[in-house]
Amino acid sequence: MHPRVMRISPGVVSHALAILLIVATGCSALTPAGRPSNGLSGIVLWMPGASGVQLLGDWNEWGGLEAAGGLIHPGAGRMTCDSDGFWTLQEDPDPEPGRYRYAFLVDGWRWVADPCNPESAEYDGRGVSLLVISD
Amino acid sequence: MRSLSAALLLAILASPPCSGDDPAEVWTTGAGCLLSTAAWSHWQGDRPLVDSTMADAALTATALSPFADLLVTASVTADGDPRPAGLRRLRAALRWPGTPWIGAGVHVGEGAPFVAGLHEPLIESGWIAPDSLRGMSLSAGGFLGFSGTHAMAMQGSDTLVSSRVRSAWLGFAGLDYSRTARYPGSGGPETLLNVLMIRSDFRYVKPWVLVAGAEGEPGRWAVEAELRGIRPFDVAWGRVDVVPGMSFAGDSFSSPGTAFTPGRRVLTLSALLRPERTMIAGAVVGSLDLEGDSLTFVSMRLHMLSEAGLSYDVSGILRENGGRGASLCVGTGSSAASSAFLEADLVDDSVRVTGTVLHAPRPDVGATLSVSGDASGSLDPACALDASMLVGPASGHVGIEWRGGDVLLTVGIGGVLGCIRE
Q1: pLDDT in tens, B31-80
Q2: N or C, which end of chain A is more exposed by having fewer CB within 10 Å?
């Protein structure tokens, strides 16, 4: 008699895990969290555990990536983290009305598009976000 | 050009402050540095091999005042192809302050044109390496709210000329016009691109229109338009925007950006859920390709961060040509110190599951561990561990990656130190 092999798809595992988490945490798991107030159209990133987050975009030449030297300055678009893991910008760059692509540089090496922005674009082969500033 | 910039520098440095009771109140001077080192290696057999190393040091001095803007950067770079130390970047500009104002300057290693499109740029940053440019520019502004810049630059034997005019808000519209031309030094045909972007507002609808054209043979045109401001649902915590759009390009249109593909004609309709006070966002996008089926698709994505500290990301795409993909990611984090994410990505018939843990034992230092495997066939496991720090003006990164199929162990170390003193 051969032992029966049961295959469980990862989709089922992830769904089960999500359901378990929701049950364990109650209704607050399905209630959207409040958004910290911030300038620049409220750009904010929730990323607990990151050592640092920079906001880079067309308005600051992607932190110097396209400027002479091709290096990202570690101080460009530096964000600060609150006790809940929300990263916000302290100084609003306040660009002119127009359209700008942007993304977060997490830990100095990982690019992350803004999950709270439904509009996307592309920069250097990466998925990034699109910010539209009207007059 | 060098003699012109040197003369301009000397003139600026020798001139007294224009409103000067105390020169210190007129000039803001600063200095900065950017030191970067990086090395990458991999294991072959039982021994490590260094792939590349790089070290770069740049010093920058700036002096700003209402009537002048000076910036000089000198650098030393050592990598696989060592380059001599020297001037990397220079900007020396004079400005006649007031309203209206006029200005002029010379630049080295700056001035590469960039023209945004509605979604992707028509002229991309990096189209021309800024290091290869040296030229001069004229600018003016304050004339009824209008401003403009005209720049000429040498790039090798070619000449690059760019002009830009930006209007004030005219009550119902604002205009941006740019013209970029490149004249080959070899005498070949020049390339020319005119771009007009119109931002208008008719209270209930806000059309954005972009028209681009290049002189020469027919078919070198492109039009992109969107209707914004349609909000069927708008409450305190969020709103839904419906955005119809179109993007048409002539058969011979080309630009040094990614906004248009020659011959592409696409209609789009988007419904965007935008948060105002909550951490929720989503989009449903439909695209109809009038010339083929490569860009006909329906996609959706939804993101929410809950009060319990759980984040959900769901996305999916269905293409006319049969391609499909989906992604589900659930994350959790209890404080600013750590978070974990479990993600499943479906591309056609393959599923890859990735688990990621982020931990920051102190605010500026963190580590990321990522483990992934293919669940639909060969396991193809992969593991990556990255440690990073962003402390004060310095950042550093150490990464180790391992892939099970072909055992490949790579190690990368990099660090950047930047400082600015004013």
Answers
A1: 888 888 888 888 777 788 888 788 888 888 888 888 887 888 787 776 66
A2: N
Give the pLDDT score at B1: 39
Say yes or no for a CB contact (<8 Å) between A135 and B390.
no
Q: To the nearest whole angstrom, how far is the Cα of B119 from the nearest Cα of chain A? A: 6
pLDDT digits (tens, 9 = 90+) for A62-92: 887 665 566 787 888 889 888 888 999 887 7
Interface of A with B in 97-126 (CB under 8 A): 97-101, 107-110, 115-119, 121-122, 124
Q: Report d(CA A75, CA A108) in Å as an integer.
A: 10
CB-based contact A32 B330, cutoff 8 Å: no
Chain-chain contact of A18 with B330 (C-beta, under 8 angstroms): yes
What are B71's two structure tokens?
């910036």
Tokens 């970047």: give the residue: B89
Q: What six digits make up the tokens of B115?
A: 């023209």
The DSSP secondary structure of B318-340, one letter per residue, reads EETTS-EEEEEEEEEEEETTEEE
Q: Would you call A109 and B335 a contact, using CB atoms and an 8 Å cutoff?
A: no
Cα(B191)–Cα(B162) distance, integer angstroms: 12
CB B212 within 8 A of CB B122: yes
Which residues in chain B have Cβ-Cβ distances shorter than 8 Å to A104?
Answer: none
Task: Supply B199's token pair.
Answer: 């931002």
The DSSP line for B165-222 is: EEPPP-SSEEEEEEEEEEE-TTS---EEEEEEEEEE--SS-EEEEEEEE-SSSTT-EE
Nearest to B1, CA basis, from B153, B160, B123, B124: B153
Are the Cβ atoms of A46 and B333 closer than 8 angstroms? yes
Compute the average pLDDT of residues B357-377. 89
pLDDT digits (tens, 9 = 90+) for B73-112: 787 776 666 666 778 788 898 888 777 889 999 998 888 8
H or E segment and range at residue B286 = strand B280-289
Q: Which residues contact B100 (CB under 8 A, 6 or more apart)?
A: B140, B141, B142, B143
CB-nearest to B279 from A62, A99, A116 is: A116
Rounded CA-CA distance B93/B144 in Å is: 23
ipTM of the complex: 0.85
